[in-house]
Amino acid sequence: METAVPVDQRPATQLKELRDSQLYSWATLERDAYLKRLGVLFTSSFCLLGGPIAYQTFDPFGQTAEFLLSGALGAGFVVSLAVIRIYLGWSYVGDRLLSAAVAYEETGWYDGQTFVKPPEVLTRDRLLGTYEVKPTLARLKTTLLGTGGSLLFSAFLLFGLISTQADADGMYGRGAAAAPRVLAGGEGILYSNRVKSIADLKSDDEAAAAEQAAQGGRPGYCGDRFFRAAAGGSFCSSFDSRGGRR
């Protein structure tokens, strides 16, 4: 009845190929196995893509929430793309199963034909489309709603953290200026938490190195508006233009 249509272009055959596919078959797994596959993909994407990218902006120890949210956004985006790809494949085959006529190519794109399904084939295909493909598409839609909502919620939280804690130049994360602490009595300012007093810089080479690293390559007074003004703000602006961290 379907001899005119090449075997690999028959909707029932295409459905079987989806069931046997490494990726598309995820949609037919039991609930726990399905969620496990998505979880493995999310974790792998976080470790290989989202996490390393987030690390370039956020310190995972000092800005843990921001780092996790940023990495989760990247990993969640990968999961969403995978689910969308699976959904499109099942949707395409579902449409061909439910349709009374399907397009096919005998040997190539230039000799396209349309096959009108006999009643027996149409009944079989519509049963497959109704009882197998439609429930699968419903599951994938639910997954997309869940991943989409999670992405929006994570983006909202991350934006809130960034907008409320950005520095005076609007920067946040590793690109932001380190916030110095002013010592009692106006002794000066320090950036590194490892350094307790100005005297430590004179007697401890490791403390001096830690303070230099914490300053980000800029003179320390450039990070405090009072000391910056007292020392002459024009010099700090000139230093910034040569590539120092703002």
UniProtKB/TrEMBL annotation:
Key words of the record: Membrane, Plastid, Transmembrane, Transmembrane helix
Gene Ontology CC: one annotated term: plastid
Pfam families (UniProt xref): CGLD27-like
Matches recorded under InterPro entries: CGLD27-like
Domain of life: Eukaryota
Record bears the keyword Ligase: no
Record carries keyword Plastid: yes
UniProt subcellular location: Plastid
Main location (coarse class): plastid
Transmembrane feature ranges: 38-55, 67-88, 144-162
Protein name (record): DUF1230 family protein
